[in-house]
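Researcher: Next entry in the queue.
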Amino acid sequence: MELVSIPQNPAPLGATVDALEIPRRFRKPIRVRYAHWPSGLKERHGTVCIFPGRSEYIEKYFEVVGDLRRRGFYVVAIDWRGQGGSTRLARNPLKGHVRSFDDYQTDVSRLMSEVVLPDCPPPYYVLAHSMGGAIALKAATMRGSWFERMVLSAPMIRVRGLPVSDAFTANATALVSAVGLGRLAVPGGMRVYRQTQIFDGNILTSDAERFARNLSVLRLRRSSPWGRRPSAGCAPR
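Model: Structure for this entry, 237 residues:
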């Protein structure tokens, strides 16, 4: 396991990078990549766990890692199963399929028990974006939750603007999954990785420099030992 470092986005020094081995019945274990860094100061203020969003990866948060370390925090970041440098569960690596959203709680529990609690100082905080925010909120409801505080950016708690009710959406998606269509790509989603993505007209970011930087990371990652299978919908944000 390694981190992809480029001049425009250098990996913060002092990283420990490895993977959690999560067993499955009759199949190879799932490998969930993580990285953690010590505080950049002698004074310690606890540990921040970074929970990325859908299709994101650890390298995208290098700036954030550096900022937090300079403020005296240990930092831990994870690639959820199905994306980043972690195991894919579908033949097409762009789908980022998972059998159940609850599986992410297994990733959280293993990260905490095997990495954060043994190696990182309390108190423990979460900084999460989008899908990571939904995972963090679920973790907060678990008995004996580890986290003192959470900061959530655009947590993925519902889909806005649908012409039908949330209940109808939940029942429809459950039915689609039950009849065996759960592995199909979302209509309009990326079916193949595009290295020629353009900044003009995108609705996710107004920062052309970071857009280009993230795309450079993805291009290099495709040629790295673990990076030939990029995460689902890996358009830079």
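Model: The longest strand covers residues 27-37.
Researcher: Noted, moving on.
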